[in-house]
Structures are given as structure tokens and as C-alpha cells.
Design brief:
heterodimer; A: alpha/beta; Rossmann fold; 2 domains; 8 helices; B: Rossmann fold; 6 helices; globular; Rossmann-like_a/b/a_fold (chain A); electron transport (chain A); flavin adenine dinucleotide binding (chain A)
């Protein structure tokens, strides 16, 4: 018996959310008294693969195959499911990333496994039960879900568990399962990735702004603040609906849900749908000119003031802080 | 062309979420139900693609009879007919299985649904249906064009987008950007009443997951206000007290 974790690579590198998923999977392996195997698909170098040992992966299956250099949903799902069978995996762990969301359900069906996506805690094994806590109702609640299948699949929310070192020596093993040709019927034509920006779904720090900014040309100070912090930028629904900012920045109930360590909301009143998407942030800072803005009720820190005065001051203070 | 659109019956986005029976059941008392907002985006795109006699849109819902008002709403938006698979949609695996089994009995070109439901926030059904039917599944799409045989789809990825091309049947889960949700007009609402709504019985499969209990996030402490004229103090608090920067 073992635990298998899928380690998603981007241009041959692993991101923090991958090390987090490995740390989480290692903790499950420790609970079950089993070992942790990681599976990497695409062309990742030996040194990067060995890094996974630092977080507890004692074995790394390396699928280096030009056909699989870029993400192919069906084929990747087949490879991971085959690896799970080969490793006799009782639990398969993925990061609940965009790719993870496409893979986990297919893997679950292939393995006839129960799936929890959006997991926020380690599973609890109570009297033979396998219980996993996940976000539900857009962050307004949690659902504690029992999985009763032989094999379980868990997709972990970014920033929910943290990266934990548990150094072991990782052995890398080449792996090349058979993949059927129909697994390649969706063809990736183009990948466009902004390399200079922090990606929002797994960002640790997020600076977000709303209608209080008055016009799209006023986002310069938001971007400056985000750059200084190394934060991702986000926005409220009215802002993306007005095309002031791209839809990919919209956080909230019908946008994306995030759980960064710090969420700074500037000129956002805090409608219930917006709060749903950000309420699991660890620390919330609200800057709003209206002292009655509902957002202050869920904030940890607040400044009642004009964003056009407060944000430049914040930028100056941050520059001074960074020396 | 025929497009199947899967819709989920979910609590309105402004619902205050509470639970009953020792936090084991969602309290539906006083809650109004709607078409899952992401599914509405999928439905709107399907209607756009079929406009001008180019095809028909069938909505599918796995639910008990209480979901029929929501199905009628989808018909009012512009779907041509509807199928309700008569069962409590106990988990995504069960729901996806029912949709796939129905899809096997009918002809279709593509299946669309929303990127996730706003109740259980699973993004599971689309890819599970894809696997049950052994067709491509493209999750969290932002754009969908179709020339009658090939679909060109933009999918969201961390920090960017990916363009995928599919010929043949597929299922995609739609996010914002794919379409703007259509608001039903009076003619749509009137005609929805007489559009066909077929009820089919569900097929039984073993249950492999079950929500045992719900929990609500702990309330946050009172907000600590920093006077606007002392804005710089916020940086110190975030650094030394909250330890997040």
C-alpha cells in the first residue's frame, strides 16, 4: 500500500503548491504507515525531481515523453491512474489547481474512487472512517465528507496545508505506461503564460480593488503595491463585468475562490458574493472610504479613508520598510 | 447540432447558509433555488451556438421533482427541451454517472456545464462524465467557438490560458467569459411552460462518498482600525503582529 502524489510541472519546474501537495501526501502516508511515491509527467530534470525527497517522496516515477511534454488532460489522467495501480496506492493526492480539477475526477472514475476536491485539512481516520474536510457553499461552510471506496482521491486547496520538510532520499525511476491514442483527441494549440505575474489561485498575498477605484486607469497604484509585496492582483465582479480588469482576476462566488495568507481589499464594499470567495483568507485588510462598508465586519485590519490617499502612503511606507 | 447542458439546482447566491439536525443537513427553509450561475453561462453559450436554427439545446438535471421550477427557468432562458433524471444527486460521481448513461441513449455533439456548482463547489461532474463516456473533457473554459465539426476552446491555466482544439464529441465546463448569462424575457417564460420536460429514472450504483457533517468557519475577531493619517502603521502590524509580510 502507498500514497501517490501527482507533481505538476511548469516548464520543467515545480511550484510551491506542488511541494505543499507532497507535504500533505507525506502526512497521509505517515498516518497510514505507508510510503509516498510522486509521479511527474513531462521533461523534468533529475535535480528538480530529487527535490521532492525534501518533502518526503521516497520514490519518484518520471514519465519523460515528448508526447506528454505539455498537459494533455486525458492522457495525464490515464498515466496517473496506471501509476496508482502499479504502486498499489490507497490514496492519490493532487493540487486543486486548474489542471488538478480536470484530472482528479477522471482519475477517480478510472479507479472507482471517491473524490474530495478542495480539501483543507488532513483526513481524519476515525474508527475505520476516512473523513476529509472541504470547502462548501463558496467558503461559507465546510463539508466533512466520508469516502468509502477502496481507493481515495484528494485534491488539496492551495495554501491550506503549507509546505513541510520531511527529508528522505528520493529514488527516481523511469516510467512509461501504454497510453491509448484516443487520449490525445483534444489537441493543445497554444499556451500563453504571463511569466512576470504572480498567479492568483495559489498566491500567498493578494491585492484586490473594486469600484472605489473609479476607473481602470487608476490601477497603476494597485499594481505597484502588488509588485512591492510580491502579490497577485485581483478585483471584484463589477470591475471585471465592466472590463476594467480581466475575468481571470475576479474573485468571489462566481469568480474564483482564494485563500491567501493576506488579502488586501481596496475600494470593495464586501457584498456577500465577494466575501464568499475570499473569507478563507488568513488575514484580511480592508481599505474603504465608507466606515459602514460590510467588509469591515470580516476584516482583521481596516483603514477608513480615501484609497487615493491611503494607497500611495502605503506604498511609501512599504518602500521604507523594505529599506 | 445538438448540445446537452447539465444544470444544477443551487441556493441563491445571497443565501445565508445554516444547517439542521446537528449540522448534518443544509437548512433549505426560506431558501430560494436558482440555476447554478456557471451552468447559466454554459446554457447561454449553447443557446448562442444553436441560434438561427443551427441546433437544439437540451438541459439535463439530476434531481427530484422539487428542481422542476429551476428546470423551467432554464427553458425560459431558451433551452428547447429538458430531461430530469429522477434522483437525489447525492454526489458528483452518482450525478455524472446518470448524465453519462443518459447521454449514451441520445445523439449529441457536445455537453456543456458550469465550472463548478456553488453549493458543494465540486468541479467534478464534467470530467467524470468525460471519463464515463471516454470523450475529452476540458475544464474551466473561457471561450468556445464551434464550426460544426471542430471546437476551439480557451481554457484557464495558472497565470495564463491554453487554446485546445477538439473534433468530435466532448464535454466542457464553462467559466465567466464563455458567455454572458441571458435573462429570460416574458415570451421565454410563457413558452417554457409548454416545452417538453421528460422524466427518466436513475440507475443505481454503489455509493462511495457521503457528507457526514457540515461546519461553519469560526467568526473573526473585531477589526483593528488604523487611522488613515497613520497608514504606515499598518505595514508594521502586518509584519510584526500578523506576520504575513
Amino acid at each position: 500500500m502507498s500514497v501517490l502524489v501527482y507533481v505538476e510541472q511548469v516548464d520543467g519546474k515545480f511550484k510551491k503548491s506542488v511541494f505543499e501537495a507532497v507535504s500533505y501526501a507525506k502526512a497521509i502516508a505517515d498516518i497510514q504507515g505507508s510510503s509516498l511515491t510522486a509521479i511527474s509527467i513531462g521533461n523534468v530534470g533529475e535535480a528538480e525531481l530529487k527535490e521532492l525527497g525534501k518533502y518526503g517522496a521516497s520514490k519518484v516515477l518520471n514519465v519523460a515523453n515528448d508526447q506528454l511534454k505539455n498537459f494533455v488532460n486525458q492522457a495525464y489522467a490515464s498515466v496517473i491512474a496506471e501509476a496508482a495501480k502499479k504502486e498499489n496506492a490507497a490514496v492519490v493526492v493532487l493540487s486543486n489547481s486548474f489542471s488538478g480539477k480536470g484530472l482528479a475526477p477522471r482519475i477517480a472514475v478510472k479507479l472507482e474512487a471517491g473524490l474530495v476536491d478542495g480539501a483543507v485539512e488532513l483526513p481524519k481516520l476515525d474508527g475505520g472512517q476516512f473523513l476529509v474536510k472541504k470547502t462548501a457553499f463558496s467558503g461559507k461552510a465546510f463539508a466533512i465528507t466520508e469516502l468509502t471506496s477502496a481507493v481515495k482521491v484528494i485534491a488539496l486547496n492551495p495554501n491550506a496545508f503549507g509546505v513541510k520538510e520531511a527529508a528522505v532520499e528520493a529514488t527516481v525511476e523511469a516510467y512509461s505506461p501504454e497510453i491509448k491514442s484516443t487520449d490525445f483527441s483534444a489537441i493543445v494549440k497554444e499556451i500563453v503564460r504571463a511569466t512576470n505575474k504572480v498567479s492568483l489561485p495559489d498566491a500567498e498575498l493578494v491585492v484586490s480593488a473594486g469600484r472605489g477605484l473609479k476607473a481602470p486607469e487608476n490601477w497603476g497604484m494597485i499594481e505597484e503595491l502588488a509588485n512591492l509585496l510580491g502579490a497577485a492582483t485581483a478585483c471584484s465582479k463589477p470591475v471585471s463585468d465592466a472590463d476594467w480588469r480581466p475575468h481571470s482576476e475576479h474573485v468571489g462566488q462566481t469568480g474564483i475562490a482564494i485563500s491567501p495568507n493576506l488579502y488586501i481589499a481596496i475600494g470593495i464594499s464586501g457584498a456577500i458574493q465577494h466575501l464568499a470567495g475570499v473569507s478563507s483568507s488568513k488575514v484580511i485588510v480592508v481599505i474603504n472610504i465608507d466606515p459602514e462598508a460590510p467588509f469591515f465586519k470580516v476584516a482583521d485590519y481596516g483603514i477608513v479613508g480615501d484609497a487615493f490617499v491611503v494607497v500611495p502612503k502605503l506604498i511609501e511606507a512599504l518602500k521604507a520598510h523594505k529599506g | 447540432m445538438k448540445i446537452l447542458v447539465c444544470i444544477s439546482n443551487v441556493p441563491d447566491t445571497t443565501t445565508k447558509i445554516t444547517f439542521t439536525n446537528d449540522n448534518t443537513q443544509f437548512n433549505t427553509s426560506g431558501v430560494s433555488f436558482i440555476v447554478n450561475p456557471y451552468d447559466e453561462i454554459a446554457l447561454s453559450r449553447a443557446i448562442e451556438l444553436c441560434a438561427g436554427g443551427k441546433g437544439t439545446v437540451t438541459v439535463i438535471n439530476v434531481g427530484e421533482s422539487v428542481t422542476e421550477p429551476t428546470i423551467r427557468k432554464a427553458l425560459a432562458i431558451g433551452a428547447d427541451d429538458a430531461v430530469r433524471i429522477n434522483a437525489d444527486p447525492r454526489d458528483a460521481y452518482f450525478t455524472a454517472y446518470q448524465i453519462a448513461e443518459y447521454a449514451k441513449t441520445t445523439d449529441y455533439d457536445m455537453i456543456l456545464c458550469g465550472r463548478e456548482s456553488i453549493d458543494y463547489n465540486g468541479s467534478q461532474v464534467a470530467a467524470m462524465v468525460g471519463e464515463f463516456l471516454d470523450i475529452p473533457s476540458i475544464s474551466i473554459i473561457k471561450k468556445l467557438d464551434y464550426d460544426g465539426t471542430t471546437a476551439t476552446i480557451e481554457r484557464e491555466i495558472e497565470g495564463g490560458k491554453e487554446v485546445v482544439s477538439v473534433s468530435g464529441k466532448f464535454i466542457a465546463s464553462c467559466a465567466e467569459g464563455t458567455a454572458v448569462a441571458t435573462i429570460p424575457n416574458m415570451r421565454g417564460i410563457m413558452s417554457a411552460r409548454s416545452k417538453p420536460l421528460q422524466v427518466v429514472e436513475a440507475k443505481e450504483i454503489a455509493q462511495i462518498s457521503k457528507v457526514q457533517q457540515f461546519d461553519t468557519p469560526p467568526p473573526r475577531g473585531a477589526v483593528k482600525l488604523v487611522p488613515a493619517e497613520e497608514t504606515e502603521k499598518l505595514i508594521g502590524l502586518l509584519h510584526t503582529e500578523a506576520k504575513v509580510i
